[in-house]
């Protein structure tokens, strides 16, 4: 029997409002958002972009999911469990979803650690941003899109190995430079999530140069 997963929901002031079983809480937030045009609560989430030393991003294709199926997206996006820190949750999700070992370092140490690490086997990661009220548009087949709110930390990481999709959340990866991805988002936007387009615009200084500090 699988473990029941509980997650936390916060208001726009950052106050913890609810702890509830994940599927039930997300369904409740979705109903509110579809009725009112926006979510009233944000759930804790991590975003991760991995790249290699030549500046290619790992852009991952989502599986047959209820929301944004078969669209290319950031390397990883995941909910945090109740009481779980963002760093621990990110490392857990990397193992569960990608079979990927990670080490999370302070930004000041990022460049040095990447040079000293075997990036074929371990990804070196740093946090670059925190947004307590991130607006994520969710597209569902045969339904109107709805707005979900994320209390999200965004990370970037350096990695030279292969991603192995373990739990069915993703099915493919493309290696693409930031310049080519920006062109793709203009010429072929329907194969990418709107979140990816937004995040690329927000964080492109971090994504264009593997040695960016």
SS summary, helix count: 5
Name the CATH superfamily classification: Nucleoside Triphosphate Pyrophosphohydrolase
CATH topology group: Nucleoside Triphosphate Pyrophosphohydrolase
Outline: globular
User: What's the level 1 CATH class?
Assistant: Alpha Beta
Q: Radius of gyration in whole Å, from Cα?
A: 17 Å
The helix/strand order is EEHEEEEHEHEEEHH
Q: In this structure, how is the largest beta sheet organized?
A: 7 strands, mixed
What's the CATH architecture? Alpha-Beta Complex
N-to-C terminal Cα separation, in Å?
A: 44 Å
Number of strands: 10
Mean residue pLDDT: 94
- Oligomeric description of these chains: single chain
Strand content: 35-45%
- The parts where pLDDT drops under 50 for at least 5 residues are none
Share in helix: 25-40%
Secondary-structure class: alpha+beta
What is the count of distinct domains? Answer: 1
What report would you give on this structure?
With 213 residues, this protein is α+β, with helices and mostly antiparallel strands. The chain has a single domain, classed as Nucleoside Triphosphate Pyrophosphohydrolase. 28% of the residues lie in helices and 36% in strands. It is built from five helices and ten strands. It has helices at 22-36, 86-98, 110-116, 178-187, 194-207, and strands at 6-10, 16-21, 42-51, 56-62, 72-73, 76-79, 101-104, 122-138, 146-158, 170-177. The strands form two sheets. Strands 1, 2, 3, 6, 7, 8 and 9 form a seven-stranded mixed sheet that branches. Strands 5-4-10 form a three-stranded antiparallel sheet. The longest helix is centred in the N-terminal third of the chain and has 15 residues, at 22-36. The chain is globular and about 50 Å long. The termini are far apart. The relative contact order is 0.20. The model has no long low-confidence stretch (mean pLDDT 94).
